[in-house]
Amino acid sequence: MKAKKTKTALKAANEPYNPGTDFNPDWISEIKINQSGVERRAGTLKNRRSLKKEWQAAWLLKAISCIDLTSLSGEDTPGRIKRLCAKAASPVRNDIIEDLGVSSLKLTTGAVCVYHVMVETAVEALKGTGIPVAAVSTGFPACMAPLETRLREIELSIAAGAEEIDIVISRRNVLCEDWPALYEEIQAYRSACGDAHMKTIISTGELATLNNVAKASMVCMMAGADFIKTSTGMESSNANLQVSLVMMRAIRRYNELTAYRVGFKPAGGISTAKDAIQYLVMIKEELGDSWLNPEMFRFGASSLLGDIERQLEHHLTSCYSASHRHALV
Q1: Taking burial as the number of CB atoms within 10 A of a residue's CB, which of 31, 46, 60, 147 is the most buried?
Q2: 2 or 22: which carries more pLDDT confidence?
Q3: How many helices (H) and strands (E) does the chain have?
Q4: Residue 310 and residue 70: Cα distance in Å, rounded?
Q5: pTM of this prediction?
Q6: In total, how many domains does the chain have?
Q7: Closest CA to 100 of 311, 319, 315
Q8: Is residue 6 assigned to a domain?
Q9: In angstroms, how far is the first alpha carbon of the chain from the final one?
């Protein structure tokens, strides 16, 4: 199966980009998920000993670099988003960074994720930092707006300076097993995104089965998703190790079939340093070291950064500080 060629497929080889493939129903029909096997495999991560001391600190610094620092609230104001961007550019207190001896890393988060109306504010606040702005789009979170409106929203966010677009799928296409319709929808989003990186939210908590999660992941990758993402963060069930394992295996299978690499973003409910390390370990074991970077892996999170900073301070002082000392905004 030959991949469709686009101008962005000619990017430098070290830049992740998935040009997609023609729709192939055989790749979908071959998917059969063993739920008990998934549960056993995910359970092994929770039962292991946790990383300690400098190894834990190193993994937590890696986690920070992979965070899409997010604010998606009706209470968002320009001032709040500017403070969020300041935290993204300097995610850990300077005294902690200096005591850890990692000033040379010039650590930042992977991106800042906001609603469209806050894109220009975030772009201006992040000028000169190299941190991209990601905009949620396409009728986020329910995807119930007309297609023309959803596509226009993508175009407006890119015009405002967003370099990444987090789109949501129409869950009804998955629940009705209308895979060609889902493929066409994601292709339309891909076209509207142009050179912007497209992260596709499949809303795992609303897809009913792990088979649906795997099939939706495969269809979205065939249609050109650069990342597949678990959740909007607003479903009743968001990211967990089981759905993440299924999505990682789908990414691995797609890579075997096409040689294209697709990134992964768990989002919603990931709030502790321990959670972050479990996901990083799973990425390393399931996809390999080449996925352990912000170009191929992101956390969609808001409160996670505060707990990681708190754990890093504990590593240095052996004392836990109050959570309010590590506020985001």
Answers
A1: 60
A2: 22
A3: 13, 8
A4: 19
A5: 0.92
A6: 1
A7: 315
A8: no
A9: 48
Domain assignment present for residue 274? The answer is yes
CA distance 119 to 161: 7
User: Which active-site residues does the annotation give?
Assistant: 166, 229, 265
Closest by CA position to 28, among listed 178, 207, 194: 178
- Is residue 237 classed as helix, strand or coil in its secondary structure? coil
Measured distance CA(285)–CA(251) in Å, rounded: 13
Residue by residue, DSSP assigns 33-74 as: --HHHHHHHHHHHHTSPPP-HHHHHHHHHHHHHTEEEE---T
Is residue 2, in this structure, part of any structural domain at all? no
DSSP class of residue 289 equals G
DSSP letter for each residue of 70-114: E---TT--HHHHHHHHHHHHS-S-HHHHHHHT-GGG----SEEEE
**Cα distance between residue 175 and residue 216, in whole Å:** 10
Q: Can you give the residue range of the structural domain that contains 43? A: 22-326
Taken in order 12, 105, 162, 287, is the CA torsion positive or negative? positive
| Contact predicate 230/266, CB 8 Å | yes
pLDDT digits over 46-98, tens only? Answer: 777 678 889 999 999 999 999 999 999 999 999 999 999 999 999 999 999 99
Report the run of H or E that residue 133 belongs to, with start and end: strand 133-136
Q: Specify the DSSP class assigned to residue 197.
A: E
Identity (one letter) of the amino acid at 141? P
Let me know if residue 43 belongs to a domain. Answer: yes
Residue type at 278 in one-letter notation = Q
CATH number reported for the structural domain that contains residue 200 in this entry: 3.20.20.70
Q: CA-to-CA distance for 231 and 233, rounded, in angstroms?
A: 5
Q: Average of pLDDT values for 152-172?
A: 98
